[in-house]
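Lesson 9: reading folded outputs for more than one chain in a single document. The general rule is that every protein is listed as its sequence immediately followed by its structure tokens, and records are never interleaved. Here is the first one.
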Amino acid sequence: MDRRVIVYIDGFNLYHAIDNLRQPHLKWVDLRSLSQSLLRKGEVLKAVKYFSAHATWKSDAVARHYAYVAALKARGCEVILGQFKGKPRKCNACGTKWMAHEEKETDVQIAAHMVSDALRGETDRLVLISADTDLSPPIKMIAAHAPRCEVFVAAPPKRHALCRALGPKLELSAARIAKNLLPASIQTGPAKTVHRPTQYDPPNS
């Protein structure tokens, strides 16, 4: 029987790592195809879980994110959204005040899904794409209470050295991501199509 694999993707952690590569077209990555590329012989992809939140105060960015989320859903990814909450900030030097935004719930959601799936025997190998070391405790809990479930951490591009506490086994490369991009247009429902944002057009397209 094939071993079942569930992939858990820390959306903003991966997004910011790709953003640092200065190759915007890589942001249009097909997470289901990317997850398939991480499978071993004798494994089957049971689910791809994408965790993120909409930055609703950024009109252009959130429009692109809505399009991306719709595309991921059309590809069969499960999307679990948290939220941003405002947090007042003040400059101690000049007294200027402003409202900052902090992403909430994402790492907790990832941890909860990982531990729940592992303890209920829903997966034989759990693949986490993140460099967030706050996810170390759930990994340790799984190792202690569901040792038959293998945890495999794939660090986002250029983040391997930043997440050694997670014990990453692999670092995603720009080349791997480039081989797993979504098409320019994706049908998301009857008479509904989402189009790749022009900011994400590949070079020389």
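And here is the second record, again sequence then tokens.
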Amino acid sequence: MSPRLELIAIIISLIMLFGIVDLVRRGKLKEEYSFLWLLTGFTLFVLVVKFDLLVKLTRAIGVVTPANTLFFFGLL
């Protein structure tokens, strides 16, 4: 992944994590759902930072590019 795309993905995943925490703090997101959202955000962040793990996962599920894997799991 290019450094620019990696930086954008890190920024988006951090914004998502902070957004989830803010929604829980303001009471807009129930605590029972917050765990799943935080887990998803944290997983995306780890996959962006640990690019080797993302490449292995991409090959395992048969996707063409690692960026598509990130978008797929982000949509899930």
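What the second record shows: The mean pLDDT is 85.
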